[in-house]
Amino acid sequence: MHTHDTIVALASGQGLAAIALIRLSGEEAITITNKVFKGKNLLEQASHTLHFGTIRDGAKIIDEVLVAVFKAPHSFTTENAVEISCHGSPVIVREVIKVLLKNGARLAEPGEFTKRAFLNGKMDLVQAEAVGDLIHAETDTARQVALQQMRGGYSKDLAALREELIHFASLVELELDFGEEDVEFAKRDDLRNLVVKIQHYIAPLIASFDQGNVIKNGIPTVIAGKPNSGKSTLLNALLNEERAIVSDIPGTTRDFIEDEIVLGGIAFRFVDTAGLRDTTDIVESMGIERTLERMKKASLILYLYDLANTSIEEIEAQEALLTGLSGATIIRVGNKVDKAKTELLAFVRSKQFVLISAAQQQSLDVLKDKILEKVSRQEVKQGDAIITSLRHYQQLTQTHEALERVLEGLMTELSGDLIAMDIRQALHYLGELTGAITTDDLLDNIFSKFCIGK
Ligand code: GDP
User: Fold this and answer.
1) Which pick of 162, 253, 349, 408 has the fewest CB atoms within 10 Å?
2) Looking at ligand 1, which atom is closest to the CA of residue 304?
3) Secondary structure element (H or E) that encloses residue 394, with its range
4) Which of 228, 341, 363 to mutate for ligand 1's pocket (most ligand atoms within 8 Å of CB)?
5) CB 126 within 8 A of CB 134
């Protein structure tokens, strides 16, 4: 991958659309476009201007387009860049890209635009990763957190703190040059204060990961219960309601995220629903081991009782099994209230089960409220720094541990060279986090997950 090449890719979605956006970046971006564009001379236009004309392959007119020109360093990648808005037909997109390739551009690799923005210093690594998160955000809360991260909230602070720490590292190392002489350039109290300050900054970020993970990845949810308790009926009822809500919004033709509902800004992903969809599946009706197996995949379990066909003794027996489970939050649901005997109703009410009829879509709202109540969630406020990436979590944790060793070293008056080693480690982890230190593997790992055109 050559970073001085001019790259091109479709930046908008695949398939038919009113408009498609093709993006170029690189030194030759404007020159190459100018070769195939008939209209004003793009080389003479100011940055951030828009021009109408046609894209041609020799004498053949491919489409009428609008071309936006961005001049280095004032673009997303800091390089010369062009955005061509053409009619959103896959044929046009293909032909336009083909003629640009013929004139010296090459196809962009996944995430290459964002990678260039990072390599050219336009954003740090945490911000670059947030671009991907923002595009993939499935809820409004996830969008908000990704946007905050992209705008450079905590990573900028961490970079500044890292600079302060670098200063101390060099002072401590300078002392080492003086060998036997008893000099102390790095005031130990100041160093301790800085380390504590960094730890105070990092600790809440580390603690925010639980919440961040939920915001980004949703809550894995399982609907469990004996065969015929109404699991698939409930799943369908919940998903259909969600679909109805979304398709009510005019103009949305959103592709549905399979088996997911959004409540209170949090996505609940129904996992392992394959068996539930095919109710004639014999294997699925095979009892408790399989049910327990499924329940292990969840952090939230909706456990259904069939109130039309279950005795109090059976419920008590199943409850005994459930209480043996740890970890996941379990919500007990009494289904088929429409067919329940009064005596049984009184019993399950006393146990505070949520009573619904999945088939008649009765009290589903009560169930949803219960779900939200059980999932402890804090409101995300504008400006909250929340980490959502496992990579960030691990690197912050390692930084914190290294700083802890620095503090211990200071307390026990460890020799300067050992303290310097721990400081260097902390600097390393912090540097990898923000991208001040990178390896090809790390970058490949991050940007290969992006789509082409990002
Ligand atoms: P699963 O095996 O747990 O997935 O159960 P199903 O969803 O396939 O439901 C089993 C049967 O119970 C089906 O015939 C459903 O129509 C019926 N059923 C589901 N929910 C209710 C309900 O709330 N009331 C009544 N009367 N029947 C229901």
Assistant:
1) 253
2) 3
3) helix 390-411
4) 228
5) no
**What single string gives the DSSP state of each residue in 85-136?**
EEE--HHHHHHHHHHHHHTT-EEPPTTHHHHHHHHTTSS-HHHHHHHHHHHH
Pair 438, 125: CB distance under 8 Å? yes
Per-residue pLDDT band for 125 (boundaries 50, 70, 90) equals very high
Tokens encoding 113: 């635009």
Contact, 398 vs 367, CB < 8 A? no
* Cβ–Cβ < 8 Å for 82, 68: yes
Question: How many other C-beta atoms can be found within 10 angstroms of the C-beta atom of residue 145?
Answer: 27
Largest CA distance in the chain: 89
Instruction: Give the tens place of pLDDT for each residue, 186-213.
Output: 788 999 999 999 999 999 999 999 889 8
Measured in residues, the chain has a length of 454
pTM here is: 0.78
Q: Which two tokens stand for residue 383?
A: 């400006």
Query: Is the separation of the CB atoms in 385 and 130 below 8 Å?
Result: no
The tokens for 108 are: 């962009």
- Whole-angstrom distance, CA of residue 136 vs CA of residue 436: 25
Q: In this predicted model, what pLDDT tens digit does every residue of 338-387 receive, in sequence order?
A: 999 888 999 999 999 999 999 999 999 999 999 998 886 667 777 778 99
What distance in angstroms lies between residue 382's CA and the mean position of ligand 1's atoms? 43
Span from the CA of 80 to the centroid of ligand 1 (angstroms): 61
